[in-house]
Fold each of these.
Amino acid sequence: MTVSRRGFIGGVLGSALAAGTSEASSVEYFSGYPGRYGLLHDTTLCVGCRSCEVACKKVNDLPPFEGNAVGDQSVFASTRRSTDTTLTVVNRYREAEGNQPAVYRKQQCMHCNEPCCATVCPVHAFEKTPEGPVLYHPELCMGCRYCVTACPYYALAYEYDNPLTPRVMRCTMCYPRIKEGLKPGCAEACPMGAITFGRRDELLKVARERIRKNPERYVDHIFGENEFGGTSWLILSGIPFDQLGLDAGVTHESLPSIGTSYLSVVPLVITIYPGLLAGFYAFTKRKEQLAKQESQAAVAETLKRAGEETQQKLAAAAEKAKKDQDKAVERAVKEAVAKALSEQGKGDAS
Amino acid sequence: MSLSVPAAPSPTEPRGGLLTPFNLITGAILLGGAVILAIRFTRGLAATTNLSHTNPWGLWIGFDVMSGVALAAGGFVTSTAVYLFGMKEYKPVVRPAILTGFLGYFLVVLGLLADLGRPWRLPYPFIRQAGPTSPLFEVALCVALYLTVLFVESTPAVLEWLGWKRARRLVGSMTIALTILGLLLSTMHQSTLGAMFMITPTKLHPLWYSAHLPVQFFVSAVAAGISMVIVEGMFSHRAFHHQVEISQDHFLRINLGLAKGASVVLATYLAIKAVGLTLEDKWQLLGTGWGLWYLVELVGFVLLPCMLFTVAYRESRLPLARVAAVITVIGVVLNRFNVSFIAFNWKVPADQRYVPSWMEVWVTVAFITFAVVAFRWIANRMPIMYEHPDWKGSH
């Protein structure tokens, strides 16, 4: 599992669960397939003859350059990059000055130890082989080009002019030739010995030895040993690497480990949200219900109080009415008595 | 009950026949888009786009996918507010927002189909081989599921229109579950769209690159979603005024409430950005040219609308809230553009930078036009802007 120690276990949930266990149980560190191949590019030996470019086209059956590219230096006027028909290019990064030779660097896919193209591919169309090369499977590719976006080396190209079957195009480290026991085309073609093919760990030793023997010739650094988790291509240089167009801001942490750590949060969202949100919903419902109950209770209380008051009023009114009635009767009796008495008085007088 | 319905909208009679100015203009745009897409699928992306090996993602990803998903966030924001948080006064905007969301996501898929090298392989992550380590795999899965959720959430209007009561009741009973699922999926893919760029620390300018990209994308999407509801209301409230049955006052209160919400979300977003700059020690980068551009985005399109929303709410000024909403929408699109192709590849020499071709712009405009036409067609026929008399007050 060179590709990504964290991922590639299968299933978003599966990888998240496994991430926990693997980190808990494994003190072991997997540094990549043992004995895998690599290429050492010693830029101090490169003279910019472009033999590698020509050889690359030939072994990959790509349309050849017009005219004789070997020795044609006119292309160095601008900085080029690998394309869908030219999988590797040589650029000149410093002009010759006095007895200081010009500096060239060959650009192509670096075949990362932990390739981010493989990590970001939604169909997993890339594969880090035990031999070292990163392979691409066009039969799976849907053409989202996330790999092209993600590659920090600008090494991936796409067949934009192919309307129906476009592919991602990049150096394959001549995987078929390696399987046959041959060297990659560029390494075989280089007349200066600037490209050495071999086992990556052996190449690291070779590179260190060269730096040790000629400390004045080299910057004491092997680009690709640790950059972004390490690459199959290793580069030696006599000038600082950022002047070679190799990003100065690189880290030793692999891009997949930086770029996909967030994905471990995703299963948490899936597991926490339903309960949390159902809780919110229940909370809202309950609040509504409580408010309803409270208002109902308040209404009932009001009604009850109103009922009691009414009854009291009614009773009072009834009493008052009774009193009024009594008074009226009393008054009527008095009046009647008075009337009778007065009538009696009249009769007596006449 | 149905007697109380004001001016029940009839399936719209085509006003003035087929050759209305609206139809002519939209027809021309759509036809042009179809021609360009025909060229794209016969002569390739190279013939139609300015994409290159160095700039593999352009307008169709930056706008149609990255911005489209953010602008379609209104659906999950409003349905969550109404159904989960019980903010029932916002119910009238849920249906238009969900329809906008559904059409928005539909556009995302259309844009993706135009942009993918082999679009017919779109289901490959699910049927051929999964790449679960890819943020894009998660986005694809979530968008596929969420598009389905939005589709189901949109069906009540269709079922009411068709009069299929039993199916309508069934969908209605799933409202809470669908709302929860929608919020869950939206949280995941809105943020993961930002996470997609976390693997490019050397290519995306450090002011935009952040460990908090996922959270920043999610929060800004909520602001975009709320603002889109206001913007959408600005057009549809007038266009479908004969259907709208809520009072002018209720409509105003909804919009001012949305303005208040948007101002809080934008303030939160600003705070998150400030926290990011502090934690990652990037304040000094504001003094550079890119810093100036960053400030344009953050002050002009986040702080400014945040303040405008606040004033609009306090002073009950609907037009001001609408201005703020439009600025916010533009600001979120600008942010997605910055992340996906402006501040992306910032070290690449100027002559190799990406600028969209007119054909890319045309196709994007055609897709937006398609969504507007579809919205109009549906809202003219189905109960989107009003509640169907038989289903008043139900989920």
Amino acid sequence: MELIKDGKRIDGRAPDELRPIKIEAGPLYRADGSCYLEWGGNKIMAAVYGPKEAIPRHIQDSTKAVINARYNMASFSVEDRKRPGPDRRSQEISKITAEALENVILTEMFPRAVIDVNIEVLDADAGTRCAGITAAAVALADAGIPMRDIPVACAAGKVDGVVVLDLLGDEDKKGDADLPVAIAPRSEEILLLQMDGHMTVEEFDEALELALKGCREISKLQKEALLKKYKTFEEE
Amino acid sequence: MGISSVKKDYLYRLAKEGKRPDGRAFNEYRPIKIERGVINMAEGSARVSIGHTTVLAGIKMDIGEPYPDTPEEGAMSTAVELIPLASPDFESGPPRADAIELSRVVDRGIRESKFIQLEKLCIEPGEKVWIVFIDIHVLDYDGNLFDACSLAASAALMNAKIPNERFEMGEDVPMPLSDPPVSCTFVKYNGAIVVDPSLDEDEAAEARHTIAVDKKGDIRAMQKGLSGSFTVEEIKNNINNARIISKDIRKILEG
Amino acid sequence: MIEEGSVVLPGDIIATSEELFPGYGTKDVGGNIIGTIIGNFFINKKRTAAEIKPLTSVPALLHKGDTIICEVKKITDKMVLVDILHVAGVNREMAGDKDAAIRVSDIAAGYVVSARDEYRIGDIIRARVMQARPAMRLSTEGPHLGSIKSFCSNCRVPLVKKNSVLECPRCGRVEKRKIASDYGEGNIDRKVKFVRR
């Protein structure tokens, strides 16, 4: 299967083009903050609870809040039904997501507390960890949790020898490399970076630049979604 | 003890005046919203809201061996996940007894009303049948999960297609179905019996009664839950009310 | 510096640290004052600080003047130790410490000999925050503060208000408490204004 034909990808995108992204801030009633995000074929719901007393006590940190992220895929979100509950992949993603988010949250304001960040993948089509972090960041802002920036994530990769932005499912499966990146957009510090596949150093430079470009575009969409909810709120 | 016991005092006081915390009448249901086909990867799906309660049901199908006692029938399984996204009171980890009870009550309503025509899901008798997985994700918990999960499961099944194409068995066809069950749940606190409990009412409830009604108005499954009790009169009353209320819900479901 | 009143998102640069100090909802990051929550920027003139008036709900930290619901965990003659269960009008779990104390002198307007005469372990009390930092100080002085739910020391069933005392509906035992005017009504979100002594 040819992944790139006449400079176009299987869904007709140019190599440096993102899939369509839709972000809604605060759709959930019960959560302290929430976000619903559609990104290509991905559908993600994120909810934040806390800061609240960390229980059991041995997980408490007397100097700062603990970030407890839970990335989970719904059984029906993938082609072959996934057994419910965490597997090793989702546990790894939960860990690096928590670490990336912790970087921007002013955790020192809430000693002994925990902030729960729940990310549910409802429909999956590659790039769910980036979509999850992007949604979680909006949910954290919606929950009024102080942060020095709103993190954002996006992947780049290589398919048919071409460096491309934001892989979709078939490109991820059959492509040459995948590079998910999360940043704090104001300073462009890197909060999360993974890579698998095969790239030359030059290709990596190009892919990272593309991922950063993607992050900048998505950061705007995150801010628009938050302003859409809270600017109208202000006018009411 | 905690704050829930104090909230209960408030609900008790309102109930004595014939009122509910959100201003509804005792037999008044909250607005229902159903969106169908919301998940691409699922064979069928539906997102259902009852008031602020929101659940998402997805159908996946696979081919497997039939049960030895029903060699010519497909199989079904229902699982509700009370994920911590939906409520600060839900914990991650293996399903607890309340999630299992919920799954089984939803399952019984569908199974006993013969909503899925399992005999049409046989591929090779005794060898190969379709297995229907009904997975229900609770997204926002504001009470009455029994009815929300049941409604979402039915709506998702009505939206589902048998994925013949993916298994290289020809074209996709609609799920073979009969009429769906409609579930109606009542709770009792301080002598008051209310339909479609909100979260505060769920928390104050002493007894719960779920009734799955078919299109004719016959009863297909019931569950009495929690440590309180109902009188025989109350049970009969609930059934009568369920038969009336379920007609409106059925209209929305079959919409 | 950006215009006063504008909506700020986390990470937005508001001013330089030469212009303003960082106040509520802002932080000094490398010489810039940035917003950390969503809200309207304004200048606190007294402190020449940049502050944010939040547009979102914010973590439930206690402030002076808040009304809270708490449960009595331990009593000595001089002190009632409580667990804070709920902040009136706030639909979020407490973000900080839940432990607090009510001194015997802050229980009621008159002279109270021992805290044990006014409260018992397990009582659910409405109190007001007199001071949030450095240590939490609560008061139940005033007609609308005090127990909103108490239990019989013998049979543990909720006591019922009868005139100015509480009575056990099961054993008939009469108990005394500093009770709130709406004892037993279950109002957890009622906010009580400060009454100066």
